Amino acid sequence: MSSLTSLPDYEKFVEIQQNVYRARFSLKLYGSTYPTSIFLVHIPTTKDCILVDGGDPDNVTKITNAISSHFESFPEYKLKYVVLTHGHFDHTGVLLKLLNDYKDIKIVMGENEIPFVVHGKKYSEITGDTLTYQLLKHFFAEGKAIGNEDRVIAIKEGREDEFEFHNDLRPIFTVGHTPGSLSYLHVPTNIILIGDLVFNFPLIQIPIFSAKNNISIPITSFSVSESKNSIKKVVEMESEVNFVFPAHDLYQNGISIEEFKQHAQKL
Ligand SMILES: [Zn+2]
Q1: Does the structure show a pLDDT above 60 at 207?
Q2: Which residues make up the environment of ion ligand 1, defined by Cβ < 5 Å?
Q3: What range defines the domain where residue 101 resides?
């Protein structure tokens, strides 16, 4: 395992699977730093591009620079959507800037994230089943609300195939971390981007969450039991999934589905 700043995709997009690029940034929180991934997915047939998640507010300049330099390398591609795994502040930092810079893009999210991401409801208002979060939630920053729904597309459960590019990047409801959390299955390469369903880095920094391996137990602002159900749901997709990529991941190739399955069995 390498340190965050020496990762090949530190602050720049690097292809991790065909047509899937990842950049990782350093999220500073309470004296420690945590890896935070954002992904760019190319749709080769239409030359559209989808950004998965929007990083944290402290890294907005670095993120927009990474996106701009990616499109300098791939001038034929055009950003069309930002799709969110969920609306926590460390996944939505760059949204307002991108909405301003790219006048045609739309933001895609699970229907139940809309009150938080668009209308400014606070995740800390949720009374979930998570004691840890009930204790910690007041220390977490809230994201800045988008303010109106004009440039937002809500994904509804059972109607995931209404997303234009669902044949390439299929939204999968994996609620639990938040009420409307989505994962995204990249159909051509059999990888799934799971947001914060689990983390994948040594959690010795946060002893109360530490697990035997580097995959965390569910850490949620909504429902641990729903998170566990969603982890099972990903395991049940094993015929379609080779690798699982969490948003907070210090490793190069994510988590193999076998390793993810073993972790799920221990929960
Ligand atoms: Zn996060």
Answers
A1: no
A2: 90, 196
A3: 4-266
pLDDT at residue 223, as a whole number: 87
Amino acid at the residue 23: A
Opening angle at CA 154, ends 150 and 160, nearest 5:
145
Measured in angstroms, how far is the CA atom of residue 88 from the centroid of ligand 1?
6
In Å, what is the CA distance from 104 to each residue of 46, 128, 150, 233? 16, 36, 11, 34
Q: How far is CA 99 from CA 107, 123, 155, in A?
A: 8, 23, 19
- Centre of ligand 1 to C-alpha 133, Å, is 13
Q: Domain containing 67 — which CATH number?
A: 3.60.15.10
Strands ordered across the beta sheet of 32-43:
14-17, 20-29, 32-43, 48-52, 78-83, 106-110, 152-155
Q: What kind and span of H or E run contains 70?
A: helix 60-73
- The C-alpha atoms of residue 197 and residue 230 are separated, in whole angstroms, by 8
Ligand 1: distance of its center to the CA of 4 in Å?
A: 16
- Total structural domains within the chain: 1
Report how far ligand 1's centroid is from the alpha carbon of 196 (Å).
5
The listed range with the strongest mean pLDDT (31-40, 125-134, 139-148) is: 31-40
Distance 89 CA to ligand 1 centre (A): 8
